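User: I've been trying to design a sequence by hand for this structure and keep getting stuck. Would you show me what you'd pick, starting by listing the structure so we're on the same page?

Assistant: Good idea, let's start from the same input. This is the structure you sent:
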């Protein structure tokens, strides 16, 4: 028997096996659209023309198909499911297969991206409930997400999670999808970003396959759509989404949505849809406080081999307040830099690596603040710091204060000299001395970094 026949026969057998175990008419409809196209070495290539079916199978059944195939044919290691725009020349092994033939493009606006270009639509294995750190700002959203994922008798639908960027919406949606799939492998769960929803919609609209799109999206047990504000900006997709929404709610299928604003503030949304969404459970995630930011960093640091010292984690948690994504980005950058350059990770290298981004968060530091902070740090009085006393206990902090004034403020040398009631050559000498010492004396370097952090964070002396 040649390769093609083997392939088609094996695929037909696997479909029969799946049909027997899954007993789901929708799954069989989806599988009937799959074309077994080739076997190359230890890989089987399946193709499908509908992006929607592609996602559904990939997210729900590909692993199962692969394990069935491996047990049928031990030479096979991997089963790939590819999305293909045009399949006119392909034929399916299954007699009942209807091949989706892409029709001529209609006048409808074509998607910007090439239709055959695959948008990765996968659930990130790192985004689970176990890796989600809970704090005051997200505890309600977390509790609601867990409830919907773990309690089959939920009374609310949809669950609507809103928050600014980078605060954990996508993470929670993925966590819900993972948990439902784990508890109910028989359920079909579909996660779509709104871009994917939009592209699938346009694809089927352009190929005159709207019934296909509708039937598919409405046939799932759980639908998760991320960032729905993007769908709402486009009237046709909003309308389609509304129908989908109503159809799923009527069948008591679960819907989980995320967006960047509460329903009342969503722009361009139809009032009826707004009301329907508000009838579910609306929860928000507020920006993380410093404690939660530190907890998240500690979690990520542990995942990455715990290479970052605690003082650097605290510094990042204190300085990067915008959102969790930026916080995580900063941590990754510090680690990547150390790996590439081979530098140790400490306060100095961190400040150097993150110079550009920290700059945005920095508050201006003033000369008197520096003097107070340094005096306080070294346990001497402000008078002694400003005095002419030459004892090391006073002279060194004074030099440090001059150095910090030079590096943290825009003041010129004569201005700094004025602040310290000295001439500017003394200031130059102080700056040079401390620059030299930082290179040799690790303890002093750490102290200066610590004072700098406190000053930038606006701590009171
Ligand atoms: P959003 O979808 O709201 O823009 P994401 O879910 O993509 O934000 O989150 C951005 C990054 O921050 C992700 O890597 C995510 O894992 C992480 N993150 C956000 N909140 C938390 C949290 N509470 N615990 C752990 N990681 C988090
Ligand atoms: Mg997101």
């Amino acid at each position: 028997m040649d390769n093609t026949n083997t392939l088609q026969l094996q695929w037909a057998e696997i479909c029969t096996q799946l049909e027997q175990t899954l007993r789901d008419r929708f799954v069989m409809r989806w599988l009937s659209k799959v074309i077994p196209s080739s076997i190359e070495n230890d890989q089987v290539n399946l193709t499908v023309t509908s992006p929607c079916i592609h996602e559904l199978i990939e997210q729900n059944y590909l692993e199962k198909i692969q394990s069935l195939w491996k047990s049928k044919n031990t030479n096979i290691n991997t089963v790939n499911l590819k999305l293909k725009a045009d399949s006119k020349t392909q034929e399916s092994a299954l007699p009942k297969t209807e091949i989706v033939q892409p029709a001529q493009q209609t006048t409808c606006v074509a998607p910007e991206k090439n239709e055959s270009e695959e948008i990765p639509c996968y659930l990130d294995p790192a985004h689970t409930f176990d890796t989600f750190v809970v704090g005051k700002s997200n505890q309600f959203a977390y509790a609601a997400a867990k409830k919907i994922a773990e309690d089959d008798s939920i009374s609310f639908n949809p669950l609507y999670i809103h928050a600014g960027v980078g605060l954990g919406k996508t993470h929670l949606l993925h966590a819900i999808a993972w948990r439902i799939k784990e508890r109910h492998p028989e359920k079909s769960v579909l996660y779509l970003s709104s871009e994917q929803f939009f592209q699938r919609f346009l694809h089927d609209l352009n190929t005159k396959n709207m019934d296909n799109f509708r039937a598919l999206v409405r046939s799932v047990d759980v639908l998760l759509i991320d960032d729905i504000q993007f769908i709402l900006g486009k009237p046709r997709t909003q309308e389609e989404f509304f129908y989908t929404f109503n159809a799923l709610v009527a069948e008591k299928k679960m819907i989980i949505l995320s967006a960047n604003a509460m329903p009342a503030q969503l722009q361009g949304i139809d009032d009826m849809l707004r009301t329907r969404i508000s009838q579910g459970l609306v929860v928000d995630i507020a920006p993380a406080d410093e404690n939660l930011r530190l907890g998240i960093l500690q979690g990520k640091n542990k995942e990455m081999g715990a290479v970052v010292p605690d003082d650097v984690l605290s510094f990042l948690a204190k300085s990067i307040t915008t959102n969790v994504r930026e916080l995580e980005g900063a941590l990754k950058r510090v680690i990547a830099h150390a790996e590439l350059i081979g530098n140790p990770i400490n306060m100095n290298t961190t400040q150097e690596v993150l110079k550009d981004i920290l700059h945005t968060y920095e508050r201006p530091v003033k000369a008197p603040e520096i003097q107070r902070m340094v005096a306080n740090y070294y346990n001497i009085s402000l008078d002694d710091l400003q005095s002419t006393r030459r004892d090391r206990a006073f002279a060194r902090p004074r030099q440090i204060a001059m150095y910090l004034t030079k590096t943290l403020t825009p003041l010129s040398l004569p201005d700094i000299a004025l602040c310290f009631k000295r001439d500017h050559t003394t200031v130059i000498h102080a700056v040079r001395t401390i620059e030299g010492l930082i290179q040799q004396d690790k303890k002093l370097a750490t102290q200066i970094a610590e004072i700098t952090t406190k000053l930038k964070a606006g701590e009171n002396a």
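That's my pick for every position. To get oriented when you compare it with your attempt: The CA atoms of residues 375 and 382 lie 6 Å apart. Residues 169-170, 226-227 surround magnesium ion (ligand 2) (CB under 6 Å).
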